[in-house]
Inverse folding.
């Protein structure tokens, strides 16, 4: 690279450096709009409760949720599986006559004096 | 443009991360023109440079909560982001100089012929710069367009000074070779250098 070549290149760089970079108000506005979106997004993530916090407030936490889940499973099982104990308990309620004993007439006699 | 003390940008960025909008305003005013200038000098196209500038600032907003002021300066990080975004665009090709991006002179300023010659020189250099390998283009641009020192360029490019010097030397040799045939056409032989 000769001195004249280097000088030519340096002159070219100088031309480019002196070229005023266009800066528009529109660009500045767009950059601030992006900043505002990030600010809003960061604020939401700081304020919004996490799922864990919501669970703790409503149910009482994971142990309580475990009990609730167990009860739910048991109910589903009882309804679907119809284990033998349930069938035994239902005897007398289906296709049978139940006699209901009346009150003892002596009780009424006593009331009548 | 007056550059602020080295730690002020990081202080403002931390304030932004805490939700202070005034910090975002200050950073936008201080950094966007500088970022835009660097992108425009590398790309030579107003619209593309604005896209790069907006993308670079968006990345700054996103990294704010995780910014470590001990590891780097904000301006160093931005130089790197803009340089990489620009070289990505140059690789994709299809860019050229928007000649209308160069401001028209006021009365008493250089003639139309001189203006056109300047525009032609700028376009020739940017075309040649765009054809360099990415790392050479980045090194040459940071040294001769942004006028940064080699140690700072080494930090930005995450390499050492010796590599930077080699990249710049090779890049300039290629630029000379590409522009040599146009010295007379571009009027460089008439210049008083």
């Amino acid at each position: 690279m000769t001195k004249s070549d280097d000088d030519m290149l340096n002159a070219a760089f100088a031309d480019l450096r002196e070229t005023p970079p266009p800066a528009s108000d529109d660009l500045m506005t767009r950059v601030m709009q992006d900043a505002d979106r990030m600010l809003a997004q960061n604020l939401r993530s700081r304020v919004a409760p996490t799922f864990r916090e919501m669970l703790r407030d409503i149910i009482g936490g994971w142990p309580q949720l475990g009990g609730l889940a167990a009860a739910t499973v048991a109910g589903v099982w009882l309804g679907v599986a119809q284990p033998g104990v349930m069938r035994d308990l239902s005897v007398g309620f289906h296709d049978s006559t139940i006699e209901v004993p009346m009150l003892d007439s002596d009780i009424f006699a006593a009331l009548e004096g | 443009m007056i550059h602020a003390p080295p730690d002020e940008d990081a202080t403002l960025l931390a304030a932004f991360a805490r939700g202070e909008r005034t910090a975002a305003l200050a950073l936008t005013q201080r950094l966007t023109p500088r970022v835009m200038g660097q992108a425009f000098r590398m790309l030579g196209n107003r619209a593309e440079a604005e896209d790069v500038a907006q993308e670079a600032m968006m990345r700054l907003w996103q990294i704010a909560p995780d910014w470590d002021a001990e590891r780097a300066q904000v301006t160093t990080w931005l130089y790197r982001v803009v340089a990489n975004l620009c070289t990505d665009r140059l690789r994709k090709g299809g860019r050229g100089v928007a000649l209308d991006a160069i401001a028209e002179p006021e009365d008493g300023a250089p003639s139309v012929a001189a203006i056109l010659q300047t525009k032609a020189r700028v376009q020739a250099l940017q075309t040649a710069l765009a054809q360099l390998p990415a790392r050479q283009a980045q090194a040459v641009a940071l040294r001769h367009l942004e006028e940064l020192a080699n140690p700072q360029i080494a930090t930005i490019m995450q390499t050492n000074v010796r590599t930077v010097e080699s990249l710049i030397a090779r890049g300039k040799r290629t630029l000379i070779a590409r522009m040599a045939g146009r010295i007379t056409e571009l009027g460089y032989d008439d210049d008083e250098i």
In short: The first helix of chain B runs from residue 8 to 17. Chain B has eight helices and no strands. Chain B touches chain A through 49 residues (CB under 8 Å).
